[in-house]
Structures are given as C-alpha cells and as structure tokens.
Design goal:
Length: 115
C-alpha cells in the first residue's frame, strides 16, 4: 500500500538545523511532485516547499526562503527538507505530500524550536 513516512523532527534551539526525510513506497515516486507542508497549533496547514518530479524546479514559501532547502533522491524514493537558521515560529508538525496521478499525505513529524 501507499506510504509516506516522515522522520527527522525533534527539539532544536533557535538558530539550529534539522533535516527531515520523507520515505515513499507503493507508488511511482519519480513521477510525483513532492511537497512539504506544516501546521502549527491553532493554525491552518501551510505550504512550505515543493520539488518537481525530476528535481529541476523548486519553490518555497517566503517565510522559509534562503533558510530551507528541498531535495529528493529518486533512487531512494525519498524527499528531504534541510532546515537551517530555525526560528521559534517554525515550530509545527511537518507533513510531506505527494501530488501526481493521486495525492498522498504522510502522518507528520513534529519540529519544535525552543530554547
């Protein structure tokens, strides 16, 4: 069956870094655009970043530009989100999302930025 499994979240101090991973199975990963979204308590889920199927196009939310980098390894069926210079306002549950012939969501991984 289709699975998207996020990992790499945790507690980090402001200014720190984390790398999230999203491992996919059950569908043709290389044919799907991969997104990262996040949702903070009491807020709506918001777009963070997207990478197209071949990895040649990427887009970011203004709030994370120059701090976050999305990437993918189609040989490993995995997408990544490198997060640097983390701020308390980056605290949220982070979800990966596959969009193509169908749409799939992972269960999320919690990122908490706090001193």
């Amino acid at each position: 069956q289709v699975q998207l499994v996020e990992s790499g979240g945790g507690l980090v101090q402001p200014g720190g870094s984390l790398r999230l991973s999203c491992e996919a199975s059950g569908f043709t990963f290389s044919s799907y655009s991969m997104y990262w979204y996040r949702q903070a308590p009491g807020k709506e889920r918001e777009f963070v970043a997207v990478i197209r199927s071949t990895g040649n196009k990427k887009n970011y939310a203004d709030s994370v530009k120059a701090r976050f980098t999305i990437s993918r390894d189609n040989a490993k069926n995995t997408a990544y989100l490198q997060m640097n210079s983390l701020k308390p306002e980056d605290t949220a549950m982070y979800y990966c999302h596959a969009r193509g012939g169908s749409n799939y969501w992972g269960q999320g991984t919690q990122v908490t930025v706090s001193s």
